[in-house]
Amino acid sequence: MNLPLPIPVDRALKKLGVDLSLARRRRNLTQAMMAERLGTSVMTVRRMEAGHPGTALQYLARALQVFGELDKLSDLLDSAKDTVGLILMNEQVPMRVRKPKQGSGVL
Predict the structure, then answer these.
(1) What is the full DSSP assignment across the chain?
(2) Which of 24, 44, 57, 106 could form an S-S bond across to 100 if both were Cys, CB 3.0 to 4.6 Å?
(3) Which fold has domain 7-91?
(4) pLDDT computed for residue 83 by the predictor
(5) How many Å apart are CA 44 and CA 78, to the nearest integer?
(6) What is the pLDDT along the chain (107 residues), one digit of tens a residue?
(7) How far apart, in Å, are the Cα atoms of 79 and each of 74, 75, 86?
């Protein structure tokens, strides 16, 4: 099933591509040099910098490693900082905790 890309997702991918291109150029790397460091083709680097949604995630991770920014990917959805997830989890916490009934087999 090939759903159309939501506009906010498309914009985010395009911005990421522009940012990757800028980071590469700031480090004086050509697309060919970047492709060599990523272990891929120049065409993949071009597609990544264009924000193409089909680019494999591994190339983003490798690019972040080349730029010395891999920790950003590791922190992207850190569960300790997932406010929405923590709020949802806290809603499931019981208001009261009762002592288990004897004979229920629960320790």
Answers:
(1) --PPPPHHHHHHHHHHHHHHHHHHHHTT--HHHHHHHHTS-HHHHHHHHTT-TTS-HHHHHHHHHHTT-HHHHHTTT-GGG-HHHHHHHHHTS-S---PPPTTSS--
(2) 106
(3) 434 Repressor (Amino-terminal Domain) (1.10.260)
(4) 87
(5) 28
(6) 678 999 999 999 999 999 999 999 999 999 999 999 999 999 999 999 999 999 999 999 999 999 999 999 988 888 888 888 888 888 888 888 888 888 766 55
(7) 11, 9, 8
The Cα–Cα gap between 90 and 92 comes to: 5
The pLDDT value given to residue 105: 61
Kindly tell me the burial class for residue 55, based on how many C-beta atoms sit within 10 Å of its own C-beta (0-12, 13-18, 19 or more).
buried
